[in-house]
Amino acid sequence: MAGRIALGCLVLCLLAICLLAPAAAAHGGGLNAEGCHTNRKTGDYHCHKSGSAAPARPQALTSTPPPSQTQPQTGQTGWSYRNCSEARAAGAAPVRRGQPGYGPHLDRDNDGIGCE
Asked: Distance between CA 32 and CA 28 in Å, rounded?
C-alpha cells in the first residue's frame, strides 16, 4: 500500500513539473507593467499578458551606443557605463536615471533604474 501511495505521489509530481515547466522556461523576467518587453536577440517587442493590445513600441535603442556614451570620462556629463559589469565593478550599481553613468541600455525594463 505504501509503495502505491509513493508511486502516486511521484506521478503527480512529474505531472506538475511537466505542466509548470513550459511556463517557467517561457520567460526569464524583465517585463514592464503591461507585461511586455523587447527580445534582446531579435529586437521584437511583444507582450506575455493577454487581455489588452500591446502598447506602442518604446523608442528603439541602438545596438551600439554613440562613442560619447561608451567610455566614462571624468568631468563631463552624458557618459554612461558600457555595461552593468562595468557599473558593478565601479561600485555604482544600481544606476538611477539622472545619475552619472546611467544609460538607457543599462535599464532593460525602462523603470529608471539600471543594472538592478
From this structure: 13
Residues in contact with 57: Cβ distance below 8 Å, sequence separation at least 6, in sequence order:
45
Domain of 44 in residue numbering reads as: 28-60
What pLDDT shows up at residue 109?
93
Residue 47 phi/psi, 5-degree rounding, is -120, 150
Phi, psi angles (nearest 5°) of residue 70 = -90, -25
Tell whether 71 and 116 lie within a shared domain.
yes
- Whole-number Å distance between alpha carbons of 90 and 11: 50
pTM of the model: 0.35
CA atoms in the 13 A half-sphere facing the CB of 84? 13
Q: What is the DSSP string of 18-36?
A: HHHHHHHHT--S---TTSE
Q: How far is CA 52 from the centre of its chain?
A: 21
